[in-house]
Every structure is written in C-alpha cells, then in structure tokens.
Fold each of these.
Amino acid sequence: MGNNPANVKTVYYFGTCLVDMAYPKAGMAGIKLLQREGVEVIFPREQGCCGQPAYNSGFRQEAKDVAWKQVQIFSGNDYPIVVPSGSCAGMMKFHYLEMFKDDPEYYEVKKFCDRVHELTSFLNTVLKAQYTDKGSPVKLTWHSSCHARREMGCTEDSKALLRQLKNVELVEIEREHECCGFGGTFSIKQPEISAAMVHDKVEDIKSTGTKKFLTGDCGCMMNITGHMGKEKVAIEGQHIAEFILERING
Amino acid sequence: MASNAKFNFKKSITDALADKQLRANFKFATDALRGKRLAVLSDPEETLHLRKVGNAIKRKGLTQLPQLLEKLEAKCQENGIIVHWAETTAEANEIVLGIMEKHSGHKVVKGKSMVSEEMHLNKFLEDKGKLPLETDLGEYIIQLNHEPPSHIIVPAVHKNRKQIAQIFADNIPGVSYTEDTTELLAIARGKLREHYRTADIGLSGVNFAIAESGTLCLVENEGNGRMCTTVPPVHVALMGLEKVVEKLEDVPPLYRLLCGSATGQRITTYFNMIKGPRKAGEKDGPKEVHLVILDNGRSKILADTQLRQTLQCIRCGTCLNHCPVYTRIGGHAYGSTYPGPIGEILMPQVEGLDKKGMLPTASSLCNACEEVCPVMIPIPNLIRRLRDESYDMDDDGIVKGHGYKKNRLETMVWKGWKLTQVNATCNKLMLLGVQIFGNMLPKVGPLKAWTSVRTAPKFARQSLKDLAKKEGIRNE
Ligand code: SF4
C-alpha cells in the first residue's frame, strides 16, 4: 500500500478500446491497483476509443468526433483521467490539442487533456505506490511503446514500479528505443515493413533469454505476441498492471 | 530509379526487404551514425536547447523569406555573384547548361548537392553531351555504378567496403581489385585531381546563404567542395530557396546542429564561405560565380503555415538514420530524391500526392525522427496531414494530388467505426459482435495482412465494460 501523498480521492478510468475488446483482465488489474491506493475509480461505460486509429489514417474528422465524445463523457467532474496505455494517453493528452487548436472548444479540450495520466506514471509519481513482491524469482524483459517513451515519457515510471519487486530481474532489451512495427493501421497498410520490424523485435526479446516480456501498451503486445505465436516462440507477454497485481497478491 | 520510370513502392519494399546484404549494410551504417551523433549531442538538456535555437532561427527565416531572398540577391550582386532564379528544375537545368555553353564548357566537377539530384542534372547534362563528374567520394562511387544516392549525407551508405572495391575494379580502367581503404582513396583522389585541373565548371550546393552579407556557406569533409569552388574558372552554386538565413550569427548554431546530427562531428574538416569571384590582384578563385536559387514547389509549401515547417530542414539526414523503416528498406526503395522521413513529407508536396502519396504510408508514427530532428520539424504530424490530404474528406486539401485516395469503402468503414465509438448502443452491439464472432472472422483484407506473420487477435468473452459492471465499479 502506498501513501497517496496528494490524497487523491477519485479518478476516472479510460480503459481503451483494445483493452475493452481483447485485454479486459489487464484493464481490471489497472483499476485494482488504483483502488489499492485508496482511490475510488469511476469507469464510465459510455466511453469508446481515443480516436487514434482514424487520426493516424487520414480520417481526422471521424477522429475528432470520437475525441469530442470522450471529452464530454469525462466532463462531469475534474478528476484525473487514468489510462492503462502510453499510446492512448499520448493521443488524449497531446493530439486532442492539435486537433482542436483552431476550434472554440479548444479550452474545454485543453482542460480535459491536462487531466490525462498514464497508469504507471500516476501510480509511481502521484500515488507513490509501494509494492511488496510475493512471487518467486523471475527474469523478464520490458518493451516500451513509442508513445509511452516519446510522448508520455512514462517508461522510467513503469520500470521504477517493476524495480520495487525484489524477486523480479529486469533484463533490458537491445534497441529498446525501436518501434515494434505495430503503428495501428500501419501494420496492415505496410504489412511487409511491419513484419520485418516485429520480427527484429521478437529476435531482440529472444536474445534477452527471458521467458516473459511486459509492456504498458496492448497494441504492441497484440503485435509482438501475435508474431511470437505464429513463429512458435515460447515467450509470454503481459500487461504491466496485470503482472504487478499478480506479484503483490502472491 | 529515374524519375520518369514508373514507381512501384510496394515492389521496391519487397525487393529491399529480401536483400539481406542491403539490410545488413544499412543496419551497420545507421547504427554507427546514430552512435556518433549521440557521442557529440550527449547532453539531452543542451541538445534540446540547441534544437530550440535552430528551430527558432529557421522558423523566423521562413516568416520573412521573400525579404531575405531579395536581400541575398542584392548582396550577392554587390559581391559580384550572378544570381539566377529557377521556378522549376527544368529551368534550373537550362540555366546551368546556358552558363556552360557561354563558356564553351564540357566538363563539370561537382561537389555534393542534393538540389542537383532533385534536378536530375547529371542525366540532363549527359543528354546534352556534357561530362558531369561527381567528386564527393560517396557520390563518385555511385556515379561509377550508375546509381542515385541512397542517403542525403552518405550517398553510398548502401554499399560495404567489398562492394565498393568491386565497383572500382569493374569501372575504373586499369584498377585491380583491392579492399584496402587507403588504396581505394588514393585511386579516387588520383583520378579526381586530374579532373579538377581540367574542368570548365565547378558546381556545388549551398548549406547556408547569409542574406546580410551575400555569403554562401558550404559544409564538407573531403576538400572536394573547396576544389570545385576554387579551381575551375567558373563556379555555379545551386540552392533551394529555403537555405537563406538572415545573418552571420544564425550560422554557428545551425552549423553545430548540422555537423552533430549528420556525422557526429563538432566541426567539419572544411567550412567554406564564398563571397564572390576572384578579385583584381588575387591569385586564385573562379573568375565567375553564379548562384541558382531553385523554387520547385517550395514557395507553395511556404504558403501553408503547417506544411511550411518542412522547409526548416537543414538536410542533416539524421531522421533517416533513426527511422525503423528507412534502416530496413534503405534509400532507393523510396524511389525519390529524398528518402526516409524527410522524403515522406517533402516528396508528396513537391511531386504531388497522386505520384508520391504512398510514401507517407511507410511510417508507424513512432516519433523517432521528431525526437532527433535538429530543427524540430514535427514530421509525424506532417505525415498525418498528408494522409488526411490523401483522402481529403473535408475537401479542403491544398497539396497537389489531394484526394487521390478517396474511396467509398474505406470511408464507410471509418464512418461505421465512428458510430460504434460515439454511440453507446452501437458500442454495446459492436462489443457483443466481437465477443461472439470476433474469433472466427475470415482471414481476408486487413486480417489477412495482419495474420500473414501473426496469429489472429483473440477477443475476450467479456469486455472490460462487462467485467467492471460485474465487479461493481462505479459507472459515473
Ligand atoms: S527533417 Fe530534420 S532530421 Fe530530417 S534531414 Fe531535415 S533537419 Fe535533418
């Protein structure tokens, strides 16, 4: 249990559409980690996608409509909005501003953006969560999404949480800075380049000699574990929230 | 690769990815260049500060570009430099040819110039019976091998030492195969020295043109630039119109950024400042200096405040070295003068989206380029802008060839998607559909592309929304 020095009472949770559809356990784990710090979590069930897929694919107006809907859904209170994904958080924190920069809604959007936090950052820097590892010794590696690293800058927070787990040995991956090749619709619009990128990423993960990798972004996870599955590589991928929750519950 | 050959991006990607040697060469070279950059720009805080300064200088320069160019022209003329304006590459080629004809010139020695690549000047001059000779070592190698550059700073980066040895042995009469770099260099130098002495025209690019004094700055490491600009009787400098800066003080930060980002140097071996032809009583230098200022679509780019940022580029090439796509497919696959991230944003604006609109699809928007760009060009956002203009759903596109991708199916898909994300009932239905049918979708279209190297995504039986409801998480 941490100390929640800022005495945060309530947060909103933006689960992300991918977590909603394919990784609900990871999403639930994030909620539980927040609750464990004495924070009440509100999960508005009308929420949808952050809009990034359309925004990156040339369909800005569709992205904007979806973004505006999210802004409205989370406008009931000015609680922090916590997101278990660096990429979706980056979209909501920075790109919403870009999309609405010439619109009268800009200031309302900006208020929303200022409240957006990535989950591990929020746990580490705001709530100052403290973890006691109850699991057996394990070696694993970490993959950071590009937007977690370069937009939200939350990679160090994720690692700081992992380092609190004393039986967990974190083996850093070579070329950690490099994209896994997901890139949303990039993976289907340029499948060959994307394939070459995810292949190299899996090779780098393999050479850490670990049997598990963690990430804070389910898009990357779906991409990397999908390739591992196809190539019959026996390495497991897991969202960091789910992993931490397992370790501290023993 | 010639500009008029039909460009098939998909095929060139497939071919490039299949070429193991090529990929190894690019990986090796770009890893080295990244390491060198980091060794010099090692302090993140200082680097960010410097990049902000570089960004401010270029941004300010672009806001007053017409005035700066006029000033540059006047100052250059005062210095005795003859200034030419070219709206198109065809015009620029004719200007160079005209200068050559006036002097009955046949042989032109060339320092490195990306603008000359943009003009396809070598081919143009060869067709006119002239002899253009590249003198930058990398350019020399690929000219021997009849290839265009694959990188804007390191043109022969796609070749390793052995391949270069072979190119020399195959293409230079009387040279036998050697992998010894010192020997290879000596061979090239021996050949080139002779040409400097006998060339009619020397040609160069321009890295910075200082408006207040009419000075052309040329950054280089081999001394070939200095030879080309001083030995032949006539010097022709080619520049894109965005290369002008206001004053001398603007140069040091940009120069520092350029050297550090491009080659990981604090300073290059040569930094030439050219201020006109040989004056009375001087013993060396060209008798005539010409400056050709090329537009080629740049002033149109300037007119849009977002797209304008493309023109901040100082051609350092570091976005190429950091790009996970470029480092895998290499420069030639882009089928364009400028490859990599800068090429993805510049080429469609210059040649039109209908011709080069596929380039911006070759990005995962990982932001690696933006993170290192010395003048802080928001390359990913410009890629997004060009993707928007490719579909041009709002009918407000301005880039040539906008809307070339407009199609009903994709539009319908995104409109349908939107509905599932803004309407709670549709969202519920969509989630239900995914839960029931998601794992048995036929592997066609996007899913086929996805599953070619991955297993299909596994959708959960219960969504997070179901779980949260079951666990009693507050809804609002
Ligand atoms: S876009 Fe930026 S990083 Fe790329 S070549 Fe230009 S200045 Fe260098």
Note: Chain A touches chain B through 72 residues (CB under 8 Å).
Amino acid sequence: MKNLKQSLAVSLWFIFLTFPLMVVKVNTTDNIVQWRWMNMLWVGLAIFALSFLWRYALARKEARQMAAMSGEDEHGKPSKMQRLFEDPAVRTKMLFGIMAFALVFPWVFDTYQSTIMISALIYVVLGLGLNITVGLAGLLDLGYVAFFAVGAYAYALLNHHFGLGFWICLPLGAVIGGIFGVILGFPILRLRGDYLAIVTLGFGMIVKVVLENWSDFSFGPSGIAQIDRPGLFGMEMNIAASTTYIYYIMIALVILTIIVTGRLKNSRIGRAWIALREDEIACVAMGIDMARTKLSAYALGACWAGMVGVMFAAKTTFINPASFTFMESAIILSIVVLGGMGSILGVILGALILILMPEYLRAFSEYRMLIFGAAMVLMMIFRPQGIISNIRQKYELKGLKEKSENV
Amino acid sequence: MSDADKQVLLEVKGLTMDFGGLRAVDTIDLSISEGEIAALIGPNGAGKTTFFNCVTGIYKPTGGDILIHPQDKPTQRINGKKPNIITELGMARTFQNIRLFSDMTVLENVMIGRHCRTKTGLTGAILRGASVRKEEQQIVEFSYHLLEKVGLTEFADEFSKNLPYGAQRRLEIARAMATEPFLLLLDEPAAGMNPQETADLVALILRIRSEETIAILLIEHDMKLVMNLSDTIHVMEYGKKIATGTPQQIKDNPKVIEAYLGEEADA
Ligand SMILES: Nc1ncnc2c1ncn2[C@@H]1O[C@H](COP(=O)(O)OP(=O)(O)OP(=O)(O)O)[C@@H](O)[C@H]1O
Ligand SMILES: [Mg+2]
C-alpha cells in the first residue's frame, strides 16, 4: 500500500517534470500550441509501473537480507545455476557440450561469426587476467588496457622491425606485459582505494598518450599496418582459413588461461591474494609479504593482457592507439564485476554476455551504453556478488575426519 | 614459572610510540620468558594495543628497543621490521577487533597462517607437481589439526564470517598458531564471550602452553581470567607501565587499585 502511494507520488512528479517536454509542443510554422495529453498519461503510467516494480524488488531484497540475518544464510549462497554446475555429472556433460560446440563453431557458422567469437574470447582472457588483480587480490586497476596495448605493440613493432613471428612473440608479449605489470605495481604498493583508481587510470592514459605522440617509436595515431597473421609452418592461408586458425588458437589460449588461473587461485599464492583482498593488516600479520604478493598479482594479471594483445594485433593486422581507450578498461572491469569477482566461470559468462550481446542486438546499438549502465546499476543493487558468486574450494578432509574419530 | 633459568624470549626496553603530540606508549620495559603466560592490563586507551602493534611491526616505534631471543637462533633487534618478517621470526598475534578473512572458509583462514612456513612459488603453483601437491596436503592436515585443537572442525568449510563470535576469536588463535610462533600475542581474546566460552578459552590457553611450549602475552579486561591465568601481570596507564608482578602482588598494589581496579569499582 505504501509502495502504491509512493509510486503514485513519483509518477505525478515525473508528469510535472516532463510536462513541458512531452505535452506542450509549439508548432512554430503555424504558431499554434499543441497539447499532447495522451503523452502525459503514458509517462504517468510508465513511471508508476517502473517505480512500483523497483520498490517491490527492493522490498524483496530487504526481506531476503532479514532472513539471512536471522540464521538462514541466503546471501552468498550459490545461485541455482551454480549448484547445477557443481553437480559432477551435469558438469562433465556440460563441459563436453561446450567443448563440442566450441570445436565445431567455425564450421557451422560463417567467418563473420567466427570473428565476433574471437573478439569475445579475447575478452574472456582479458577478463580472467584482470580477475587475478581485481577479483582475487582486490587491487583496483582502471588502466588494464595499457597492458593489452603493450602486448599488441610489442608484437607489431617486433614484427615490423625484426620480422619476428607470432609464435615467438606470444610468450614474449606475456613476459613484457608482466614486466609492465611490475612497473605499474611498484609505485602503487602503498596506495589504496581512490588513489589506486586514479594512478591506474593515469597509467592507462599515459601509455595511450605515449603511443599517440611518440611517432618515431610507435608510428603515432596512424598506427602500424600489415602485421603478420599467425603462421602455420609457412602455409599460405586465405582470410577464412586464417580466421578459423586464429579461432582455434584463441580456444587453446582460453583453456590455458582457465587452467592456469584456476590452479593459481587454489594455491598458496592464490590464497595469499585473497587474504590480501580480505584484510591487508591481518594478511601481513600472518606472515605474508605484501609487496611481493601485490606485485605478483599485478604481473600475473598483466601478462594475460600482454599475451592476448599479441593475438589481437595478429588478428586485426592493424593497430593504432584508438583501440586502447579507457572504454576498453571499463568494459573489462565490468566483465569481472558483472561476472562475479574471483569466479572463473562467472568471468567467462560475463565476457560472453557483455561482448556478444551488443553484437547480436545491433538494433539497440544506439542504446548500448545506456542498457550497459542500467544493467550495471541493477546488478550492483540486486546481486552485488556477480552472476556467479565465488565458491571456495572444499578440501579433502574425509581421511582426516575418520583418523581423528578413531583416536 | 618465571624462574631465572628460563630463557627470555622477548625483551622490550624503553619502548616509546608517539602519535604527533600524543605519547601512546611511554618508555615501556617488559620481558617474556619461555613457557610464561603474561598479561598486559590497563584502562581503556592506556596504550596496550599500541604496544602490540609496535612489537608486531604494524607501527614503527619512535624509540626504544625490541629484542627477540628465539631458541637456537641469534638475538635480533626487530624495531621497524615488517610485520610479516616478525611473524616469520616467531611472534604471532590476534586482533582486538577480529580481523578474519571473512570470505574464506574457516580452514582456509588457518591455511593462510601456514604461508610463511611453506614455499610453493608461482611456477610450482601453475605446474602443480608432486612435491607441491604434497605440501598442499600437509598444509591442509596441519591446519585441520589446529582446528581440532580449538574445537572448530565442524565449521571447517563454513565462511569464517558465518561463525559465532566466540568461535571467531578461537579461529584467530588457530590462525596465529599456524605460523608456529614461540610467542603468541592475544589482544582481548575473551572480549564479548559468555562465561562458558571464556572457560573454554582459559582451558585452551593452558593447553597451548603445556602442549606447544608457546609463551603467551595477553591483553584482557576480564580480571578473573587474568588473575587465574597469568604468571606475571604488567599494568599500563597513560602509556606508562605502573606495575609488574604476580597476580597477588598486583591485587595488593595501591597504585594499580587506584588507576585501574578502583576506577572499575566506581563505574
Ligand atoms: N594510529 C593512531 N593514531 C593516533 N592515535 C592513536 C593511534 N592508535 C592509537 N592511538 C591512541 O593511542 C592511545 C592508546 O590506544 P590503544 O588502542 O593502544 O589503547 P588500549 O590500551 O588498547 O585500549 P583498549 O583497552 O580500549 O583497547 C589512545 O589514546 C588512542 O587514541
Ligand atoms: Mg586495545
């Protein structure tokens, strides 16, 4: 009832606010004023419905939180999809399904679809990389795209000047990305929160500005063209074949990333990252070297961006600084936040949703950023832990439990 | 217990900590010997937690010396060393306002304590060879045994934020013990506990001392617990140490009664 009243008040207020815009229309040629009363009705109804829905959802959320407080813990509980995925039988079946789909994809769909999928996969790797820094170690990084740029330019320049091939540059890109991660990491070891945001943002900008202006080195805004595509024993490939080839390399890279980040996450190092995120002071008081842990988180996050940057340059065969704007960093960060901080599965889903949706919803492309923003806000309010909340590993305790019972 | 032949583990001389104009810790002398349970008491704001923070490296003291004499290792001056180094050297602590890793499980919280005693690096973690898997299993076992000790095995897979308050305090103790310290610093371990939990805590602390040969320095406001448990009591007021002695001596010390116990009687 209270909701109804408040929604009514909100809708009246909006009618009042939008009155001059939506209702009054002055036809300047005929010098008459048109009164579009119908519009007023629509605005009123739409706002009323929206506001009511909003309030209803908020109330439900609060009720759920109350329940969580009084014992039954709902918050942080895995979602339905998550529980389904945890079931080993379902899991293997799903994994097989996904693998099969991924493998036949380029044969079933055309080159255009493969190209879209490749960029989505690039973002999957970027998301998983940033997930180490932001999701696991809790270190904000608003300039992540800089490492992507570093990798791409490393390949482009090495290829241009020295004719180095893709396969040599791929690990090199990762290493150079990692080195830049450490370079960024050093000065900001002591920073947190807002300061961290500002410095990392600045770092991203600096890299872009350098690439734009240091023409002797990076060829400036005009960029570098005719970068070699990935080679396969010197075979000549047409565009379609090459795209398919790149697609499979990307699939392999994604699998590599999943395995490596998954292992890191459940290792001594990964636990230290998470502890650092949870409580810095307790973390150092428990004997963890903060500087080392932070640097390794930045370096390991950055090396994926460097590696996949090489891939990006090889795929597009042309790069210029315009590809590495703050927008990209923001999108990658959104992938991590939306997917679920720290969760590998969540980040993969987040990347696919955020990158593929706009491609297939071209019709709405004008409203893309608007929908994007709205989705983000809604997500933060109703599911702040992301699509998939982070599940912690369960350890093998069975043997231990029995042992202690026998004693 | 504080016999002369017992080895001194921690020796603090003239420790001073200034925050701008405020001298929170003022030329404190204090030493802890092997097997000792010592208490640090004093009214609110006396500087007890600040003393802990200086000793464990969270703050860099503005004056004085902190020396540690671990068994079979040379004496070291640890002023201004990083907290993680001090923990590695063998002093671990708990926090007055519980600082658990809330989004990690209870077991993982303890496993973090093993970090400085294990050595898997990045490549090891990625390749996950046999030795790494073995170390990982050892970490799990060691941590699980500590959970047994503090009686938290049933919660092993829970997020630590979901534990009841008293259990969280015990988990902090287990986590600190996972670093294999020779000295355990407990900051108000019984705060917020009910009488039953407090009794369990006393039993736990006694067990730690007897089974693990870990010395303990604890800050506590619960006088009954302090009097029951401690071999030595140090009393602080306004950053200064005003008395040291056995529980009986402290009870009878007029200065202490005035500064601390008297104040409580008024309240
Ligand atoms: N980081 C800091 N900066 C400035 N002043 C501080 C800081 N930490 C502590 N103090 C001050 O030092 C004094 C001692 O504080 P401390 O926390 O050590 O007291 P305490 O004995 O632990 O008290 P309690 O029994 O309430 O825990 C207080 O006056 C406090 O305000
Ligand atoms: Mg205190």
Note: Residues B 19, 22, 24, 42, 44-50, 96 surround adenosine-5'-triphosphate (ligand 1) (CB under 6 Å).
